[in-house]
Structure formats: structure tokens, C-alpha cells
Batch of 2 targets.
Target 1
Amino acid sequence: MLAPVRLSEGVHWVGVNDRTTELFENLWPLPHGISYNAYVVEGADRIALIDAVKGLFVPDYLDALERLLGPGRQPDYLVVNHLEPDHSGALGAVRARFPGLRVVGNRKTAEFLEHLHGVGGDDVLVVGDGDTLDLGGRALRFGLVPMVHWPETMVTLDTGSGVLFTGDVFGGYRALEGALFDDETHVPARVEGEMLRYFANIVGKYSPMVQKALPKVRALEPRMLAPSHGVVWRGAIDHVIGLYDRWSRHETDPGVTIAYGSMYGGGERLAERLSRALREAGVATVRVHNLARSHASYVLRDVWRYRALVVGTPTYNLGVFPAVDALLRLLEDKRLERRLLGITGTYGWSGGGVKGVRAFGERCPGWEVVEPVVEARFTPKAGHFRQVEELAANLAARLER
Ligand code: FEO
């Protein structure tokens, strides 16, 4: 879809879709692409750009601005809600095209701007929490929401329209498919899964800061939430704020994620039996990931959503299998709280894999190991499959509480 798209009187989307980049942050898969949302707010006296786009898309972005503003009209400000290069990559090109344009951000933004883009001095207008910037007939009001996602992150309210520009907050993976607004698309199926994956991958680690930010967002009484990725929320504002509230409080649905590594098939057989046993025990949602194939991005999404995780690992060089170990490190780094942990494993001449997973569970805040821990030597036998069924029954019972 091509910009510009009108949000409200004097407010337009001038963003771009990216269906080319394989990995966001060179880390997280983008099978459905992503949008970089940028906006323009036009007052009677001044024009403000709200965030920009990734550097790769400078021509499209400048073209959209010129089509919207027409010849001879220049923006006065570029408000930087968030300086990560997926939004500020075009900053140098914008300043070159519009000489005299001032970059607006908070003190932390100014500090980072100097290092990231070599911009400082009078070229930067520093604002604080609650400050306003008059555009003529409308003003921008700034709210600092540090660490959602970087320390400089802030949100900006257009008092004229009630549109709140939220940066990464409420954003999601997936390029826009012609629909800019939530009420133009089938939100749960098409949007929320990729929004949760974005939250789990990018924002979730900073959940305590999200909890501090949400009251600030609510207090601004937005009539529209315009994030820098994904759809603009105007029909389901309370719903999306509720999702963020729930995810950042580590609240979960009653399901089980099975994430396993398996070198010679024994661990896989345990996972397969477990998945069926969980269904037979009444667990409605089971997600299974072979960690040699599933990218951690998706596993992290599911672990963020569901209350129980079963980790299966072979013993590898006296420890946890590398693909499993990488997931555990990621989960620990993201500081997920209060999960039920099941453990299965195999070993040959010495143990170590299961022991490593148990130690991981003990380090994670509020995690609880559900027994029995199942550990087979070389290959699972009938007794191990009976233990897997017992584990499934115990997990199902815990999920019902
Ligand atoms: Fe969309 Fe944290 O950048």
C-alpha cells in the first residue's frame, strides 16, 4: 500500500511496507514482512513529522511526503519517539531534503542522536515529560515511556485529533495488507499473533516498564493508537491496551508448549507421546517445536502465551543440547515469570542435560517444575512413556486450577 493515508483532519500515515528484509534486527524472522509507520501532523502554523522509516525506504518516504505536502511546503519538526534505525534510518536524508527542520526528542534522545546520527546543538529541540509543542490550532504533547523499547522511547499525542503515536508500543510484525486500521482487518487471526510475537521478541523483557507506561497512555485518553509497526488501532483501543496489560503482567492461557531437541529420535518420541497424552488429559492447546527447525522467535511467542513449557533435551557433552540451551538462555534473558516446567531427556554414558534444564527452572522467577521428570538412557522404554502420561495428567490438573 502506498502512503499517504488519512487518519484524521491534518493527520496522515506516510509509512512503508517492507516485504524484503528477512530478519528484523538481523535476528527475528519476517515471513509476512513488516511496516514502518511514519506520520505527519499539520497545524495551522507548523508541520511535524512523527518518526521516519528504515533507511532502505528513503525514496518512498520522501515521495510520500512530497505528495502529501505539495511543492514548497516544508515540515518544521521531526519528532523522534524512538531512535532505533528502523524508524530513524531516514533521518539524515530527511534533514538533507528539508534544511532547517529540527529534530524533537527528550534528553536521552539528544544524547543518542549525537552518537547515532551526529546531530546536536540547535538542530535538536529537547522536550520533557508532559511538555507540549504548539503547531497552531493543535499541539503535540509528549509522554516519556523509557525502555519500551529503548531508554529514550516516548509517545506523542496530537491534541487536535486525539491520535497517540506510540512507537513500538502496540506494534507488530506483518506488513499492512491494504488495511491500515484495526477495524478494516480481521484482527485476531491476522494481526494479534504477530503482535504477540513482536511483543515477546522485542518489548516483553521490559514488562515492568510497560506496566508503568500503560497508565500514562490511558491518562492521555487517546482516540486512536498509531504505533510505528502494524495496524492503527481505532476500533479496539481498550482491547489492545488490555492485551499489553495482560502480556506484561505475565498472565497466560491454559496451554502447553513442548520444545525439544532430539539427535537420534528418542526425545522426539517422548515429545510425540506427550503431545497426545496432553490432549487426552483435556489440554485444549498444545504447541510442539523441534528446536532444530523452529526459530526461537516463535517458541518465545508461545511460551509467553501459554502457562506450561515442557523442555526435552538430549545430553550433549555432559550438558544441555545446544539448540535447547540457546532457547533456555533466551527465555532467561527475557525474564518470563511464573511458568510450569516439565522436563524430559535422554542420555547415553552420562547425564547432564536434564540436570541443566532443572537448574534453569530454578533460576527463573516463579517457575515450578511439574513431576515426574522423565529421563531415558539411550532410548525411551515403556516405563518412560508411562511417566510421560503421568506428566501430562499432572500438567493438565495444574492448568485447570
Ligand atoms: Fe521498531 Fe525498537 O524499533
Target 2
Amino acid sequence: MYMTLKPRYHSPAGYSAEASGTDKRRLYIETYGCQMNVSDSEVVVSIMKENGVGYTEDITRADIILINTCSIRENAEQRVWGRLDHFRKIKNSKPGLIVGIIGCMAERLKEKLLEKEKLVDLVIGPDAYRELPSLLEEAGTGQKAINVLLSREETYADISPVRTDKNNVSAFVSIMRGCNNYCSYCVVPFTRGRERSRDPESVLREIGTLHENGYKEVTLLGQNVNSYMHKISSPAGYLDFSGLLEQAAALYPGMRMRFSTSHPRDISDKLLHTIARHDNICKHIHLPAQSGSTRILKLMNRGYTREEYLERISAIRNIVGDCAISTDIISGFCSETGEDHLQTLSLMKEAAYDFAYMFKYSERPGTRAAEKLNDDVPEEVKSRRLSEIISLQGTLSARSKEADMGKTFEVLVEGKSKKSDSELFGRTSQNKVVVFPSNGFKSGDFVNVRITRFTPATLIGIACPE
Ligand code: SAH
Ligand code: SF4
Ligand code: F3S
């Protein structure tokens, strides 16, 4: 899946991201991978705009094509190779067109990407986007340009991202970069570098600007938001994630706060109490388990056991109350037995997840698992286990929606329903999608909706009279 950016820039002066008459060249950008990449593409569009490169959603009008890439699984990279092949064809028929690869795959493959004939002119890693304008100059003179240096400091704190959402309701705010966890299967610490937290003042300022521009929801982003930590001049000397979230929620009570991703090892009671205390902090925690077997979790270097994970689930249920919990699961990790797999299924049932992202293990070169462990679960076993996991989650998700029948939820409207112009869609605090008849409501409204039925993907309801 990829998203093209639909940006709107919201400076008080009000300027549009679509290329204007003064922009000499136009950028088209395609984004793959996680929310961090979506957020980074917004930073890239902003840097380019500042340097007189306009933005276009129409690839045929582009002078520069960038692809922001993901390396998390092999199939993510396969998709990018397919797109690069397509861009090569466009390049052949349009002399002067510059094609660049940015993001995690650029970082992972570095110079190798420049070796293929007429494939890309530019290779830029996630910490080098400020260099884009000068690298573009270089590429414009026919040289190949590359910068894949990772940084210990870069957080792009001072750059106002050009917003990608269509509805002006909800936005991502990146609060940290990188990851130090080194889960044995994961490429992210290699593609994104060391963990660093963004200055809280710049985070709060960005949320403030979004608030002024009518946004109603932000999602604070990081690979492991609960290890956020920044020096401040207070008696404590530092601000942790719970403190940052508390400040954001208190400063902007009319906005909803979401955050992703939480690492099970670092989700403290203090954070859970902060979530419980503020109505505007959404009652949804994405808490990836990866596996239900303590033996596999150890091989994955996740830093918790099955029991410790389930204890955190109980803590969420006890402290936060009506809180949705979602997860990521990997099937068929190195040496996973039928018994380990059953443990994953039973953990899913115990946790009673509201939704889940589920994957087959994909060995990534350079990771600890690739170097020290055997990718020995046959493909068809991985697939069978994955389909059992997906099928169980289908049942759990249906159960979770069934429990919502007849209840009333506050829904933040994000836009018109895809199926019908007379219906709106939005989300509950628990991050469940709700569709209901518009009745004069519009994007950005908070509406109390009573749930009457559900489909596999959505809750359906009607707006309640005040
Ligand atoms: N930082 C987040 C997730 C980052 S990647 C966290 O720690 O939870 C998103 C998900 O991709 C991971 O949670 C994991 O389930 C999956 N993933 C990562 N590496 C993978 C691999 N090599 N094979 C299959 N799935 C993988
Ligand atoms: Fe990857 Fe683990 Fe870091 Fe998540 S916490 S990004 S899975 S290394
Ligand atoms: Fe993919 Fe990089 Fe995100 S590998 S999941 S785009 S951090």
C-alpha cells in the first residue's frame, strides 16, 4: 500500500502546497511503510517547498519523483523495486527527470541502489533530508548524489510539516526518531539509527499550530513512545512520555491525543494513570506482543515474558477502564514450534485484542536473527499459522464490536463515508471506525453516536439527540 500526499500547508499566512507560479520545479512523492514515513514525507515536502520546489499529485507533471521506502519485510522492498522499474520507464521518455529513493530502503542498501543502470539519481537516508536541496543540485548536473549518514541529534524539530491528511482533522506529530531496542528480527535500528527525543517545546508548539488551524486530533509518533525522555530545566531535570502527554492534553483540552507505538516493557502505571485522568487522551493502546511464547520472546529480544505482557494487559484494564488494545503478531519466527504457536493463539484470546496487524516472519539481512538464528519454519507452515492467527483475530474483533452494540460513543468526524455521500465516518476514542447518517454534521465535529450494527470493518450507528 502507498499513500500519495494530499498536503495542505497551514501557516497563518495560508499558503498552499500545490505548486504555485513561482515554483520552478515540481515534486511528486510516494510513501510506503509506517506512519513515521508519512510524517517524514511531510517534512520532505516542506523542505522542498522552502527551496522553491512545488508539489504535485500528478506524476506526469513532476520534474522530481521521490519514493519514501520501507524495509521492514522483504515484500515491502519488492513493491518498491516494482515502482522503481515503472519510474525508469517514465525517466526514459522524459529527459531531465530526477528519480530519488529516500527512507529506510535507501539507508539499508546505500550505494548498491546507484549501481543499477538508470534507476535512481538520488539516495537519501532518513536523517539527511535537510541535504535534499543541495543533493538535488548535484543530481541536476548529471552526477549521482547520496547521503545516508545517520544522526544522533536530528529530529527535524524546527520544520513545519506540510500536512498530508485530506480532512484537516487529524495529524501526526513525530516526537522521537530511531530505536535502540534491537529486537532480533527488526531492521529499524539499522535504518533509523539511535533513539532520540524531540524538544518538548517544539512538539507542543506544533500541536498549538495544528490547534489554531482547526485540527481536532494529533497522534504522537515514535517507534517506542514510552521511552521518550528529554532534558528540561525543572527540578526533575527531564520530561518523560507521561509528562509530555499530560502537558499536551492539559494545554489543548479540545483536541484528542493519540500515540503509537508503545513497547510492552516500558508501559508504566504512571502513563496509564495519565491516560485515565484525561478524557481527551484516547482510550486505545497499541501494544505489540509479537508472540505468546516466552521462549520465542526471548529469542526475539523483546525484554518481557508472556506473563509480564499479560500483567500489563491487566494493568491497562484495571487502570484505564474501557480501553481498546491492539497488537502486532509475527508468525513463524525462527524455531517456532506448534506449541509456541498455540501459546500465541491463547495469548491473543486472553488479551482479547480489538484489532491486530499480523505478519509472516521475513528474515532481514544484518539483523541478529539473520546472523545467529535459522529461518527454519517452512513457508507453508508460516502461512498456515498466519491464517489461523488472522481467523482468530476476526472472531475477537467481531466480539469486540458486538460488545459495543447499543452503546453511545463520542465520534470525531473525519469525512464523508466512502460508500455514501449522505453518511459520515469517524472514530471513537477506542479507534474504532463508525459510519452514521450525516444529518447536518461535518468533518471535525464531535458527535454522540449510538451503535446499532456492525460489519467486519466498521461500526454503524445513528447520531443521538443532544
Ligand atoms: N516499533 C514498533 C513496530 C515497528 S515495525 C514496535 O516495536 O512495536 C511494525 C511491526 O512489523 C512490528 O511490530 C512487527 O510485528 C513487524 N515486523 C518487524 N520486523 C519484521 C520481520 N522481520 N518480519 C515480519 N514482521 C516484522
Ligand atoms: Fe523494531 Fe523492536 Fe524497535 Fe519496534 S522496538 S522498531 S520492533 S527494534
Ligand atoms: Fe518500514 Fe522504516 Fe517504518 S522499515 S516500518 S518505514 S521505520
